[in-house]
Amino acid sequence: MTRPRLPRSRLLRPLAALAVPLALAAGLLIAPGALGKAQVPRAHAAASYLTGIGDETDEMFGNPLWAQLHTKIVRYIAPYDAVTHSYSLDKAILFIREAEAHHQQVLVAFYHSEYTPLRLPSVAQYQKDVQKFVKRFPHVRQYQAWDEANRGYIPHALASPSAVANAKYYQALIRVCKGCTVIGLDVLDAQSIGPTLEYISEFKREIGRLRTVMPKIWGLHNYSDINRLESWRTRELSRALGGQVWLTETGGLVQFGGAFPNNRGSGLTRAAKVLKYMFAVAASQSRIKRLYIYDWTGGTASTRFDAGLMNAHDQPRAGYVVVCKQLHGARCNVRTAKN
């Protein structure tokens, strides 16, 4: 996932280049031709879900192609200490102000500091900082305690909380945001979901030990599953989470390192196919109530992670057409870009 850039004077190792964590890169590898055939999931009779976009740039709201989608929900990833750093806070202000001006319901996911990404906060420090954020943005009433909490430690780049620590962050967040919808966990799938299942179990055990409120809504990023044109990981993880499931990040990978190249536009075609499959998966699993497509803003040929519906010049890709037609049918007649 693309992260906001730090000012040049404060640049750390480029976190944006790490996008989907490097720890999962091997789990996303797909053999050539593996996307050729896929069994399309059957729609569930009770399926009903909202579709939105996740991004970290406010420019999205000024694009008429975004307005054409008529979505009502957006997701924004903010450092837990955003209010203590003017750069992080200004970015959040711009995005949330534009989102609210366009009548969007904002889901904010906290994550590591952009200035000290290798150091996890104490529970007390986390609670103090997120409480300031909640007060600064009184109309935001939906939160996640930590983005992709189970991604682990990536050397020289970032640290992620253990399931026990994340349960304590979750408890701290519900304490300072009375009446908010706080989504339980926010986890990545992988080729092998065993570690993710164990993380979920540990989190739930700690919630019980803390005697705090067990979440009723859970967040899942199912990149590994749908980019293989498979759905069993999403189903198994949704069952383990329980309750409602929001696909808080999902979408088709245009380019991700060497595993998902975009040679002569092949990544654009592949991502569009995955996005179409994504909607079929959401319709087939009744637990899924929301999906946030990540992301709006695409990259260039040198970008490690690129899942944008737009290219780097804010022009629509084939994936955008899939999304637009899913939401608004034949009214979406858009000439797509070739990169």
How do the strands and helices of this protein lay out in sequence?
Layout: H1 25-28, E1 50-54, H2 64-67, E2 73-79, H3 86-101, E3 105-111, H4 123-136, E4 142-144, H5 163-176, E5 181-188, H6 194-210, E6 217-221, H7 223-226, H8 232-241, E7 244-250, E8 255-256, H9 266-284, E9 288-294, E10 305-306, H10 318-328
Parallel strand pairs: 1-2, 1-9, 2-3, 3-4, 4-5, 5-6, 6-7, 7-9
Antiparallel strand pairs: 8-10
Helix pairs in contact: 4-5, 5-6, 9-10
Distance between the termini: 19 Å
Text of the CATH class: Alpha Beta
Shape: globular
CATH topology: TIM Barrel
The assigned CATH architecture is Alpha-Beta Barrel
CATH superfamily: Glycosidases
Radius of gyration: 19 Å
Number of separate structural domains: 1
Mean pLDDT: 88
Spans where pLDDT lies below 50 across 5 or more residues:
2-26, 29-33
What structural category characterises the helix and strand content?
A: alpha/beta
Strand content: 15-25%
Reading side by side through the largest sheet, how are the strands ordered?
1-2-3-4-5-6-7-9
Give an overview of the whole structure.
The protein is an alpha/beta fold and 339 residues long. It has one domain: Alpha-Beta Barrel (TIM Barrel), CATH 3.20.20.80. Helices cover 33% and strands 16% of the residues. It contains ten helices and ten strands. β5, α6 and β6 form a beta-alpha-beta unit. The longest helix has 19 residues. It is globular and about 50 Å long.
